[in-house]
From TrEMBL:
<keyword id="KW-0653">Protein transport</keyword>
<feature type="domain" description="Exocyst complex component Sec8 N-terminal">
    <location>
        <begin position="22"/>
        <end position="119"/>
    </location>
</feature>
<feature type="coiled-coil region">
    <location>
        <begin position="20"/>
        <end position="72"/>
    </location>
</feature>
<dbReference type="GO" id="GO:0007268">
    <property type="term" value="P:chemical synaptic transmission"/>
</dbReference>
<dbReference type="GO" id="GO:0000145">
    <property type="term" value="C:exocyst"/>
</dbReference>
<dbReference type="GO" id="GO:0006893">
    <property type="term" value="P:Golgi to plasma membrane transport"/>
</dbReference>
<dbReference type="GO" id="GO:0032584">
    <property type="term" value="C:growth cone membrane"/>
</dbReference>
<feature type="domain" description="Exocyst complex component Sec8 middle helical bundle">
    <location>
        <begin position="248"/>
        <end position="298"/>
    </location>
</feature>
<keyword id="KW-0268">Exocytosis</keyword>
<dbReference type="InterPro" id="IPR039682">
    <property type="entry name" value="Sec8/EXOC4"/>
</dbReference>
<keyword id="KW-0813">Transport</keyword>
<dbReference type="GO" id="GO:0006904">
    <property type="term" value="P:vesicle docking involved in exocytosis"/>
</dbReference>
<dbReference type="GO" id="GO:0006612">
    <property type="term" value="P:protein targeting to membrane"/>
</dbReference>
<keyword id="KW-0175">Coiled coil</keyword>
<dbReference type="GO" id="GO:0090522">
    <property type="term" value="P:vesicle tethering involved in exocytosis"/>
</dbReference>
<dbReference type="GO" id="GO:0045202">
    <property type="term" value="C:synapse"/>
</dbReference>
<dbReference type="InterPro" id="IPR007191">
    <property type="entry name" value="Sec8_exocyst_N"/>
</dbReference>
Amino acid sequence: IFVLRTLSTSDDVEDRETEKGRLEEAYEKCDRDLDELIVQHYTELTTAIRTYQSITERITNSRNKIKQVKENLLSCKMLLHCKRDELRKLWIEGIEHKHVLNLLDEIENIKQVPQKLEQCMASKHYLNATDMLVSAVDSLEGPLLQVEGLSDLRLELHSKKMNMHLVLIDELHRHLYIKSTNRVGQRNKEKGRISSLVKDASPVPLMDVTNLSTPRKFLETSQFSTPGSTSMRETNLLEIKEDTELDPEENSTVFMGILIKGLAKLKKIPETVKAIQDRLEQELKQIVKRSTTQVADNGYQRGENLSQENQPR
């Protein structure tokens, strides 16, 4: 820049020539120095040039490879998007097929409910029958509501559910009023038989129910419970389970608990309470009638036995 400024501002031609010659000498000196340096460092320069060329080639190759990798990644990304959509579709289809299989299994099980229900009712396993019936009706009126082929079965099971509580109430009344008094009568007959064998003329108590497990005693166990705790009655009712291997009527108290639990599952407790209230007077009259007949028959039998013992052979 200094040389150009000097040449452009100088008006004398000689000064320009002088400056030009000085500049040319400097260029020549630089060329000579450069040639000498090239001669001295030819080997190092050649190695550096080759190394630079190699590095340049590697950088170029790396750029090409990175470009190819980017292209491959974009291609893989597109393919993965496609595969993801396919996998999602297959996953949804799998869930649908699984749901359909579960519905088919449920339909197959529900079709067997009438036969199983009849068997449970015949064996008086009412709790299992109630659970089975309630579950089947809920399924038929819920997930399987749109299945037209089950309309007849739906009506049949719904009708049985509506009338199931009547059977349970009748069984409850039978144990509450009839079977309990029959057990008392049976105990009195056995006592009377024993007394006649040992010729004991003392009167036999006809209504000894002190040690008899009655529904009232089953309910009165709640008096031992403390406030804020679960009563004995509630605990017993919650823990009651039905054993299909045993006679369901072997324990009358447990059987009545099972009946109440079944009525609760059917949501018919209000109807049960009303039925018990409506039939209470009638059932108590029947108990009095049966007891009177039994006492009269026992008294007559004892009189016959005494009259026969007092007569000579």
